[in-house]
Amino acid sequence: xxxxxxxxxxxxxxxxxxxxxxxxxxxxxxxxxxxxxxxxxxxxxxxxxxxxxxxxxxxxxxxxxxxxxxxxxxxxxxxxxxxxxxxxxxxxxxxxxxxxxxxxxxxxxxxxxxxxxxxxxxxxxxxxxxxxxxxxxxxxxxxxxxxxxxxxxxxxxxxxxxxxxxxxxxxxxxxxxxxxxxxxxxxxxxxxxxxxxxxxxxxxxxxxxxxxxxxxxxxxxxxxxxxxxxxxxxxxxxxxxxxxxxxxxxxxxxxxxxxxxxxxxxxxxxxxxxxxxxxxxxxxxxxxxxxxxxxxxxxxxxxxxxxxxxxxxxxxxxxxxxxxxxxxxxxxxxxxxxxxxxxxxxxxxxxxxxxxxxxxxxxxxxxxxxxxxxxxxxxxxxxxxxxxxxxxxxxxxxxxxxxxxxxxxxxxxxxxxxxxxxxx
Length: 424
Description:
Layout (H helix, E strand, L loop, with lengths): L4 H14 L3 E3 L17 H29 L8 E5 L5 E2 L19 E5 L2 E5 L7 E4 L4 E2 L9 E3 L2 E3 L8 E7 L1 E4 L9 E11 L4 E11 L2 E12 L4 E10 L3 E11 L2 E11 L2 H14 L3 H14 L7 H18 L7 E5 L22 E6 L6 E6 L6 E7 L5 E7 L12 E6 L6
Parallel strand pairs: 2-10
Antiparallel strand pairs: 1-18, 3-4, 4-5, 5-6, 7-10, 8-9, 11-12, 12-15, 13-14, 13-16, 16-17, 18-19, 19-20, 21-22, 22-23
Helix pairs in contact: 1-2, 1-3, 3-4, 3-5, 4-5
């Protein structure tokens, strides 16, 4: 048998992306049944994007570390212009639409001036709330961010600071149709500027921060007549796989406003390299032919909408080659709410883990396979610690919901069942 080191490198992104405990029923050694080729579903595409999110965040953090070290603290805070006439302005979500990791891309945070403060709506608040001038507003909490403090272990992501902002009164209204979906190659950032009341002038500049430096993408001075609206177009390019950051600075009447916008280009080359490593250990004639064709198309580098098509085709090839390594018919797995475990005793009590889920089988072992329940409906609790008997005819698991009282009503208990759920 060949060593699995290269295959492991191909599999590693899948392990990072899934973060699931999966156990295969022992004894089955024949290849899994092959489903007819079909377009990837939404969950499959989300998995591809999740892997890209990890790469993008790494680049964003490196970029922000350099920028923050060179920029005074008072100039690093995103500031949203709120028109003085009380009209509503929408905060531009800086995370690319494709990398929101399951969040609603259309969830809006809006702001308007209200007396000496600002009225803020969404996305989590049930009703509008008023914040004082200079207050910080959380626009978005990204699943890949930090801003957590559990049991004295606080941590932050630098990009968390870019998903917050401070409203500031302005003599103009800004329109930005975010979140954005910029792609590899030439792009244009379009801003709508409207004066509110008297004529005014707004200076607009655009900088692009990259892992290897920065680019000045131009500046404009826009003269707005009373109640006039103008659309400003700022061109820029995305030529490098990974993440970068656009900084939009607006100056009007001595006030400065700052809006960050993150960008991302799919790392097709990394996917193709991983596929090549896997094929070196587990040859596949059709896969090698397909890989060679994709490599030829990718040779020109990130350019235009074709790059996203390449990303999807390369990801689909990677999935097909990974699935051919699955040589069993059934997969036993656990469903549950996101699991929190920081210290061993926290797994058993403190009520960190929300109830819900069950134990299920997937067959055939493919994204379009059929899911059937093995054990579910035991009441309010968490299913965990699944272990198979050596002959894969029975399983053990624990179920319950930790409780400091240890009164027996909510503690964890050990259960045994057959693989069809009988004999519980």
